[in-house]
């Protein structure tokens, strides 16, 4: 069980507000979650995890990648301890947004190896991002690119998350084009995969995926292709930030196929489900809130739905803030949470993307994380927040 709520914290710091004033913010009552899973789960839950950059590397962050491998794998160990699976080398890890394919494959290889040593759950992203969009001239080029990455992931013993393809978004004109690519690729996979439908709010280059900008038609096309390959599909991750579309798709999928919510705005109610079903989870926000997510899911499995919502509900405002438009910059908030909670000793990101959110955004993130009880060590988090504010000219 979570510990009883403590008296109001004596910690405080000065935080900026949108009106350019500075408030003295007093931290809320603390809340502690277990560091390891308590009891079995009745939902499969993946955390799409971030990559820890190496702040000591002598590189140009916009042009090359430098990873702190020890801290990166240590974070995955933290997630596995909590009973969550790892969705590796996805957009949360800045895949295709700073993390290139060779580094992604090294990350996948290391992560799969670490998972096997402890019999933990990991699926890894396979896509076409080593094929420059301008170099993709035909659907066969897209198919070959998918085949290359799938082969590489399977060679190191990994399970596949089939990522959306920017090259396919460029070349695919209709349902037949998408069916050609997915049918061919899925026919070759060794084990059932998770298919990821990533909305253009996460990646503008994926606008018009499934051959149309009409989401109703896109849903029809995707469901037909996925159900037609049901034996090769473990599940579908939908990242459209539209809970009703996810529910509608969930009800249309072949009964053998799981729905993994990718809705970082509405995940609590989608995981809880209704009388017609529920969603499992594959979420970027579960990187930032892993201890709370693990404990909430254990309460749900124990039949304590009220306890589930009591823990997970307060995390939703934080998630909506982290994933606010431009949504593709959400990685900055995820990594900032890891810094505040001591999973890394710096706020440096692959691609230099620590600069994509404002000081005001980070200040509000701190408030919301505190109110949800997500600051594992409030004293440490407060010191680190003050350090970041000071580098932005705000003395606290």
UniProtKB/TrEMBL annotation:
Pfam families (UniProt xref): DUF993
Gene3D superfamilies the UniProt entry points to: Aldolase class I (3.20.20.70)
Superkingdom to which the source organism belongs: Bacteria
Protein name, UniProt field: Dihydrodipicolinate synthase family protein
Lineage summary: Bacteria, Pseudomonadati, Pseudomonadota, Alphaproteobacteria, Hyphomicrobiales
